[in-house]
Amino acid sequence: MIGQLSDLLRQFELERLEVNLFRGESRDIGSPQVFGGQVLGQALTAAYATVEAGREVHSLHAYFLRRGDFNRPIVYQVDRSRDGHSFSSRRVIAIQNGDPIFTFSSSFHVPEPGLDHQSVMPQVPPPETLPDWSRPAAEIAERLPEKIRRFMVRERPFDLRPVDPIDYLDPKPAPPVQHIWLRTAGRLPDDPHLHRCLLAYISDFSLLGTATRPHAIQYSSDDLVMASIDHAMWFHRDFRVDDWLLYSMDSPSASGARGFSRGSIFDRSGRLVASIAQEGLMRVRS
Q1: Could you tell me the residue range of the domain that residue 16 belongs to?
Q2: Across the 286 residues of the chain, what is the mean pLDDT of every consecutive 10-residue run?
Q3: Catalytic residue set
Q4: Between 259 and which of 47, 79, 185, 282 could a Cys-Cys bridge form, CB atoms 3.0 to 4.6 Å apart?
């Protein structure tokens, strides 16, 4: 997985085409289109490249407009909306084949002290007691339908350890809740920008799937269409994504062919480091 992590880091080394114009490479991770987390992370990287040192992203809001083609690079156009005394705002448009596929707004803040409180981390087993689910066991993988196997068997740059994994072979109705321990497959540089970009990348993984759990969705069905529609994220405290983080997710609602999910990310000590919200398409063709 170390090789996959190195390749992921290369994806965040954007080529600067102009002062506010960047180009990023795409990757096929087994999904039908560019992974939404890739576009999130690269857009944040492009925005960071236009913000003065000492300001950290504290929130981002994004819309996925069109499917991205992983066989082609993506161009990121940054609008420097505002640079104030302590806040900077950026807007980013991701473009492929001349069309916008993604829009993104982010806000950066000079760190300062203030009032402090947070919710409590759920009580779950520690990651060392859970199996690595970054790739399914061979005996399970060979029984998966091709549509799922192509996505699941690829090596990943993250070590993922779900507390209650979804049974892709025989899903059963379950509460719309998930807890997944995660960390990168290797040590990273001491660059807080990179850690935030990588957390944005992985934050799109499994979030929408939380909304499917009560419905025992057969992921192999050709009648199922799933895609992220929008994504919002708030960064609360510093963290390292190469140390264990708990991604705690729930879905309070699904209706009208859309599922809504929320996520809280805690570090190993129980500090809440980030919050996420996402709505996604969950269309079941009759």
Answers
A1: 2-111+126-284
A2: 85 97 90 90 98 97 95 96 98 97 98 97 96 69 65 78 84 94 96 97 93 83 83 98 98 97 98 98 86
A3: 204, 228, 278
A4: 282
